[in-house]
Write a structure and sequence with these properties.
132 residues; two-stranded antiparallel ribbon
Length: 132
């Protein structure tokens, strides 16, 4: 009977088919997990890690890229809504300024007539007008 002594670390695997336990080195185990290539148990049954570490990382990277793309689309949509709201506010401000200028020039905002004492006219002729 031959024996040997080693300081290598081993990972204990079990064959999926014959359930025989066997040992593989850490390096061998990591390589097979990284590339997903086939290896064999002592009884000759083919083994493979269906999802390699590289495949897991690639899948995670794909998910993160898709998430980033969705977030970018949402950000662009929000930016578009913001721009539309800002343009609407700018338009409203322009209308308010135009009405204020007309009123300060003595033009009635309701009937477009010119009055010297616009305040008295608005109270008497248009009491329900609030200017809002």
């Amino acid at each position: 009977m031959n024996t040997f002594t080693t300081t290598a670390r081993f990972v204990i695997e079990e064959c999926y088919k014959c359930h025989m336990p066997f040992g593989v080195t850490d390096d061998f185990f990591n390589r097979k997990q990284d590339n997903g290539s086939e290896f064999f148990c002592p009884n000759g049954h083919g083994q493979v890690y269906k999802t390699s570490n590289l495949m897991k990382v690639e899948r995670e990277l794909k998910r993160e890229r898709e998430k980033l793309k969705r977030e970018q689309i949402e950000r662009e949509h929000a930016q578009g809504l913001f721009e539309a709201e800002r343009n609407s506010h700018r338009t409203t401000r322009g209308h308010v300024t135009r009405i204020k200028n007309r009123v300060s020039a003595g033009l009635c905002p309701c009937c477009n007539r010119n009055f010297v004492n616009l305040h008295r006219h608005m109270k008497g002729q248009h009491p329900d007008f609030t200017g809002k």
